[in-house]
Amino acid sequence: MLYFNFKLFYHRYQNELPGKIKSRGKDAHLNHEEICQIMKWKQTRGKTFPQLNYLIKVNTPRAVMAETKKAFKKLPNLGLALTALSNLKGVGTTMASALLAAAAPDKAPFMADECLKAIPAIEGIDYTAKEYLNFVAHIQNTVERLNGECSENTWNPHSVELALWTHYVANEFKPELLNSVPEAPKKPISEQTNTDAHTNGNVKKIELEPTSDESNPEPLPPSNGHQLTIEDDSRDKSEDDITNDSITTSESAQTPLAEALTEDSSSLPAPDEPPVKKFKNEDQTVAAEANGN
């Protein structure tokens, strides 16, 4: 049943939802049922926290429609879009990235832990807006490189994120699958063109407008009378889990996509942090509730 549900949620998220959102035109938004389904899909990609399923359901249908509409109108400014989505209960950086990837796969990748670990220049997992924008810069640079190396511009941030996630999972659990992956054909030097994204090995930064000073609504108190706050995302991370060794992929197993990310990200300057809110770790909230704090 779990396998069936994963396939079902995956199909809805990847194939059905983007078309539904696009069909709403200038008033593109998510409804209450859709955002709850996205939360279920997101939790199939990592550890499950029942509190998040509860919190996301607490949002009223009107609030979900209003805040997602506001966020989608802010695109392509990802910083402002993240700020709008953070006004919904249970929505941290990772969940917000899932909503944006469904609405605009050509602009926003999903911030999966596996993708963060696969990029050597990202030395830890930090669920903040700054870290997400840093991740997007790496992904966007790879999109431009891959589209420059192939005749068809078929890559976008979400498709690169999916390919990177697939490579990481295959390398982690069944690396022999990668032995049959052919190397990507390379254009002759005379046919290669430079883009604005590459200047002396540096990557073009994502420039965003300053974000507005929007704040989260008061968090919902749990039934035991203690205050519960969910301001970040989704995975348990001990200090041992976020060492450099745990986020570096094996050189022997890298495909052209992973090599492109490694090459492009080595000299990437850290982007300036936009004045959007940071989100504390959801797991700290789960632990606090379990201890009655």
From TrEMBL:
Report biased composition (Polar residues) as residue ranges.
Answer: 190-202, 244-255
Point to the regions of Basic and acidic residues compositional bias.
Answer: 274-283
Region spans: Disordered: 181-293
Its recorded name reads Uncharacterized protein
Organism equals Aphis glycines (Soybean aphid)
